[in-house]
Specification:
Blueprint (H helix, E strand, L loop, with lengths): L3 H34 L14 H34 L22
Helix pairs in contact: 1-2
């Protein structure tokens, strides 16, 4: 059974990993945007002075890449926790993903 301190450690560790990954992804995305478009990414895509196609592209790219980076970092933190403790973090132990517990398909 996981102790409360292990659970708190995992929460803090996964948060730090996710924030770090998001910062790295944003920096890489900003650099890639400048290389591809020749200009800085929109500071605020909701600003009416930013063209709609540019705002949509920036929102889609940044949301997707930063979300994926955070998810990968959190998964990495969970893997590290599991290797260190021998079990998944408490937050991930009952995620409903076990196929044997899935409802039977209906026809």
């Amino acid at each position: 059974m996981a102790s409360p301190s292990n659970s708190k450690f995992y929460s803090a560790f996964s948060l730090a990993a996710a924030l770090g990954a998001a910062a790295v992804a944003k920096k890489g995305l900003n650099t890639s945007w400048r290389a591809a478009t020749g200009k800085n990414p929109p500071a605020n895509p909701a600003d009416p002075d930013v063209s709609l196609p540019e705002a949509i592209m920036w929102a889609a790219l940044s949301g997707t890449l930063i979300g994926v980076a955070r998810m990968l970092a959190t998964r990495r933190a969970a893997t590290y926790y599991a290797k260190s403790t021998g079990h998944l973090p408490p937050q991930l132990q009952k995620d409903g993903q076990d196929a044997k517990n899935a409802p039977a398909p209906t026809s």
